[in-house]
Write a structure and sequence with these properties.
This protein has about 250 residues and is an alpha+beta fold. It is built from four helices and 14 strands. Helices cover about 25% and strands about 40% of the residues. The longest helix has 25 residues.
Length: about 250
C-alpha cells in the first residue's frame, strides 16, 4: 500500500513538473483556451466594426522598409461616410507631424518636413500614401482591408493571448486575391468581449512588392461619440506650398 501511495505521489509530482514546463515553453502572454468557432468570431468582429458610426483611437506601429523598421504612433478619427483624420508622430523626420484628411471624395496630406500640402481625388489615394515610406503602404492596406470586410477569407485559430491587459483571440486571416489585394495575410488579436481588434499584424504583396508591419492599440477606443467637425477640415499654414494632383 505504501509503495502504491508513493507511486501515485510520484505521478502527481511529474504531472506538476510537466505542466510548469509547458507553461514555460508557451510563454507569459499565452493563455489556455478551448477551441473557438473562428468563422463566427471573425463575423462578430466584422459586425462590431460595422456598428461603429464614429471612432477615435491611438495606435503604435512598426512597419518594414528597405532601410529597416519604422516606428511611431498614429492618432485616428473616423466617421461613417469615409471621413478620416490621421496624425502621425515618428522619430523619422519625413513622417513626423504628417496629417492626412479624407472624406471619400478627396484627400489632403500635410507634410511639415517638406512644407507641403498635397490634395488628390480619391482615385489617387494610393499614389498620395506611397509618398510616406512604409507607413503609407500600411495605411492603404488597412483602408482596403476594412472596406472589403471579412468575406472570402481563410481563417485559423492561433490561441488566446493577453494584449493591453485584455484577453484576445489570436486569429490568422488570409484574404483570397482580388483586384485590390494579393497574397494578404493578417493576424488579428480580437478582444473576446468587444470583438474589436487590439492588435494587428499584416503582410501583403502587390505587384511583387511586399509590405508588412504590426499595429497595437494603446488607448481605450472611443466609439459612437460626436467628433468635432473641424477635425475633418484642414487649413494650410501660411507659406506652405499647396499642390493639386494630377497637376
Amino acid at each position: 500500500m505504501r509503495r502504491k501511495f508513493k507511486f501515485v505521489h510520484l505521478l502527481i509530482i511529474l504531472a506538476v513538473i510537466q505542466f510548469c514546463w509547458v507553461m514555460y515553453r508557451v510563454g507569459g502572454n499565452s493563455l489556455p483556451h478551448n477551441k473557438t468557432d473562428v468563422a463566427e468570431l471573425v463575423q462578430n468582429m466584422d459586425k462590431a466594426i460595422k456598428n461603429i458610426n464614429g471612432v477615435q483611437f491611438t495606435v503604435e506601429f512598426e512597419v518594414d522598409s528597405v532601410t529597416g523598421p519604422i516606428t511611431g504612433t498614429m492618432k485616428f478619427w473616423g466617421e461613417q461616410g469615409r471621413k478620416i483624420r490621421i496624425e502621425i508622430s515618428s522619430p523619422v523626420a519625413t513622417l513626423d507631424g504628417t496629417i492626412i484628411i479624407a472624406d471619400g471624395q478627396q484627400a489632403t496630406m500635410y507634410q511639415p518636413h517638406e512644407n507641403l500640402v498635397t490634395v488628390v481625388k480619391k482615385e489617387q489615394y494610393n499614389s498620395l500614401l506611397s509618398e510616406l515610406p512604409g507607413v503609407g503602404d500600411i495605411i492603404y492596406l488597412l483602408l482596403q482591408i476594412f472596406n472589403r470586410g471579412f468575406n472570402n477569407v481563410e481563417t485559423l485559430d492561433l490561441g488566446i493571448e493577453q494584449i493591453n491587459q485584455r484577453i484576445t483571440h489570436k486569429v490568422q486571416i488570409i484574404y483570397r486575391p482580388d483586384k485590390y489585394l494579393e497574397n494578404v495575410t493578417t493576424i488579428f488579436w480580437i478582444d473576446q468581449e468587444t470583438f474589436l481588434p487590439q492588435q494587428l499584424r499584416l503582410a501583403a504583396t502587390k505587384n511583387n512588392f511586399t509590405a508588412g508591419g504590426i499595429i497595437t492599440l494603446i488607448n481605450t477606443m472611443i466609439k459612437n461619440k460626436p467628433i468635432d467637425p473641424t477635425k475633418f477640415v484642414f487649413m494650410p499654414p501660411p507659406g506652405v506650398k499647396v499642390r493639386n494632383l494630377p497637376e
